[in-house]
Amino acid sequence: MSLRKRGSVWWIDFTSPTGERVRRSAETGNKAEAQELHDKLKAEVWRVDKLGERPRRTWNDAVVRWLTEQAHKASIEADKIHLRWLDRHLRGLELTAITRDRIDRIGAAKLAEGVAPATVNRVMEVLRAVLRRCVDEWEWLDKCPKVRMLKEPTRRIRYLSHEEAGRLLAELPGHLADMAAFSLATGLRRSNVTGLRWDQVDLAQCRAWIHPDQAKARRAIPVPLNDDAMSVVRRQIGKHRELVFSFRGKPIRQVSTKAWYSALERADIKSFRWHDLRHTWASWHVQGGTPLFALQELGGWESAEMVRKYAHLSADHLAPYAQRLAPLIGHGTNASQAQKDEGATFR
């Protein structure tokens, strides 16, 4: 039978002219409606096979294929969150029905929730990526509607001074203080610190490493351990068989806890996130003279552009060029003063 009822819902089940089995829920308990959808799908399959028409694809089809192909992404969980939100606006829609006007309305709906423009843009970026894949690789669409991005305010890099870092570490409970100190010494992301295993650490060579499947850019990251990092690691010996960092013998899943925020308050440090420890590490490196290309490799960034936001923190390499103007400015000032003195003499 082409229609079968499972529970209260009808299911469609038939074979296309090419022998492909088409099986899906009609999402209705009304047999007449299910039959109508069945006939429509069967006609579409016939037109695709016999007349060469392009299959009609829905947003849901695109999402399923996107998630399958992008399962390797480090940020796939964030994509899923955005896609779940988009589902309420695009569920069941044919891709050809996703127009520029509809996309603008979706962006406005997200902004109306009171979120920042950056949050809206992250959702729109996922939507745009899926639609572009429909055009460029899957050939499900002839063209992709333009997805407008909102202007994001440029934010200053938030980092701590050495004195502030000392205050924070003093206020944190032991296990968080050790992880924060290790982050300040290595620049590793939160997940790489909480998930660091003893088989990723070589105490004799003073180094650790992050495997490609653990890195955001999906590339291995070498982690040289300086004296501060080694001191922290040695304090963890014997606390857990597999993980470097633990709390009372158990893995640590969350770091932005009540204890973290309480310590920030006692240390009088405002507007600071755990990830800003990584910004602090990078800022200290640049201020200490570490070249950007070396910082990129140490931090495991995918491109040089991602580390250029720290470039303004060190101007030492520009000093020789700035100094070239000093004689000119001095000469101009002296000449101007001489003219004034000369004019005063003849009055």
TrEMBL record:
DNA-binding in keyword set: yes
Transmembrane regions: none
Keywords: DNA integration, DNA recombination, DNA-binding
All copies of domain Core-binding (CB), residue ranges: 57-135
GO biological process: DNA integration; DNA recombination
Pfam families noted in UniProt: Phage_integrase
Keyword RNA-binding: no
Highest taxon, organism lineage: Bacteria
Example GO molecular function: DNA binding
InterPro entries tied to this protein: CB (IPR044068), DNA_brk_join_enz (IPR011010), Integrase-like_cat_sf (IPR013762), Integrase_catalytic (IPR002104), Integrase_recombinase_N (IPR010998), Tyrosine_recombinase_XerCD (IPR050090)
Record family assignment: Belongs to the 'phage' integrase family.
Protein name: Site-specific integrase
Organism: Ideonella aquatica
Phylogenetic lineage: Bacteria, Pseudomonadati, Pseudomonadota, Betaproteobacteria, Burkholderiales
